C-alpha cells in the first residue's frame, strides 16, 4: 500500500504511527503541502478534501481522513488494537482523540493560517498566537479528560488517543506552546516516543523531511 503524506503533517503522523505499530509495510509518497501539491488536480481527484494523508491499498482502493484510515487499519490488522473493546472504555478514548482531531486540528490547519494571512494580513506573531491559543484550549480540555498515571492516556499501551495527542504535541513544539502546563500530555508524548514504532513515525524521521 502507498501512503501519501507530508513529513510535518500531524494527520499523516497519526497514520504512520498506527501502520508501524501494526507492522504493516507501506511506501510513502510525499505531498509537499508548502508547494501546494495537495491542491493539484491529480491529487484532488484522489482526495477531494485536498489534505494528507491518503492511503491507497494494493487493489487501488483509496482511503482518506486519518481517523477513517486508522479505523480501516484497526479492523483489518487487529493487533495491537487502537480502541478498547468495551463501549464504556472506548468512549473516553474516542473523546480524547476527537478533541485533537475535530476541536484542535481543523482551526490550526495550514489552509486556515493561509487565510488569516491572505484575508486579514496576520503577522507571524499573530498566527503563532492563534495556533497556541487553540492548542492550549484543546490541551486544557484534554488534560482534564485523561486518566494518565505514568504513561499512556488511558491504558497501559498506546491507543488512538495517545497517537492523536503525540502527533499534536509535535505541532505544539513547532509553534512554541509550553507543554509544562499540561503534565499528563507531556508524559504521554514521552511514553509514546519511547515506543520505537511511534518514534519511527516522527516527522523528523520521514524521507521527505529536510536533511540536516
Ligand atoms: N481531517 C483530515 C484533515 C487532513 C488535512 O487537512 N491534513 C493537513 C495536514 S496535517 C493538510 O493536508 N493540510 C493542507 C492544507 O491545509 O492545505 C484528516 O484527519 O485526514
CATH architecture call of the largest domain? Up-down Bundle
Number of strands: 4
- Category by helix and strand content: alpha+beta
The small-molecule ligands in this entry are: glutathione
Please provide the ordered H/E string of secondary-structure elements: EHEHEEHHHHHHH
DSSP helical segment count? 9
Amount of beta strand: 5-15%
**Shape, principal axes of CA atoms:** globular
Any idea of the CATH topology of the largest domain? Glutathione S-transferase Yfyf (Class Pi), Chain A, domain 2
Radius of gyration: 17 Å
3D structure, described in words:
It is a single chain. By secondary structure, the chain is α+β, with helices and mostly antiparallel strands. It folds into 2 domains: about 1-80, Glutaredoxin (3-Layer(aba) Sandwich); about 85-200, Glutathione S-transferase Yfyf (Class Pi), Chain A, domain 2 (Up-down Bundle). The protein has 9 helices and 4 strands; from the N terminus they run βαβαββααααααα. The protein has a 4-stranded mixed sheet with strand order 2-1-3-4, with helices on one face. Helix 7 (about 160-175) packs across helix 8 (about 185-195). The structure holds glutathione. Glutathione binds next to helix 1, helix 3 and helix 5.
Amino acid at each position: 500500500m502507498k501512503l501519501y503524506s507530508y513529513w510535518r503533517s500531524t494527520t499523516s503522523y497519526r497514520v504512520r504511527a498506527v501502520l508501524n505499530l501494526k507492522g504493516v509495510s507501506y511506501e510513502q509518497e510525499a505531498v509537499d503541502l508548502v508547494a501546494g501539491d495537495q491542491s493539484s488536480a491529480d491529487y484532488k481527484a484522489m482526495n477531494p478534501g485536498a489534505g494528507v494523508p491518503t492511503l491507497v491499498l494494493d487493489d487501488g482502493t483509496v482511503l482518506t481522513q486519518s481517523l477513517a484510515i486508522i479505523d480501516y487499519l484497526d479492523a483489518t490488522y487487529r493487533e495491537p488494537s487502537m480502541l478498547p473493546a468495551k463501549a464504556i472504555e472506548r468512549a473516553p478514548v474516542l473523546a480524547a482523540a476527537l478533541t485533537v482531531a475535530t476541536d484542535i486540528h481543523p482551526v490550526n490547519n495550514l489552509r486556515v493560517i493561509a487565510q488569516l494571512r491572505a484575508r486579514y494580513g496576520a503577522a507571524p506573531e499573530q498566527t503563532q498566537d492563534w495556533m497556541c491559543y487553540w492548542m492550549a484550549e484543546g490541551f486544557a480540555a484534554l488534560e482534564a479528560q485523561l486518566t494518565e498515571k505514568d504513561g499512556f492516556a488511558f491504558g497501559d499501551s498506546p491507543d488512538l488517543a495517545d497517537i492523536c495527542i503525540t502527533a499534536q504535541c509535535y505541532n505544539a513544539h513547532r509553534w512554541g506552546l509550553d507543554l509544562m502546563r499540561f503534565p499528563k500530555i507531556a508524559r504521554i508524548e514521552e511514553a509514546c516516543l519511547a515506543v520505537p514504532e511511534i518514534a519511527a513515525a516522527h516527522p523528523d524521521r520521514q524521507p521527505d523531511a529536510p536533511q540536516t
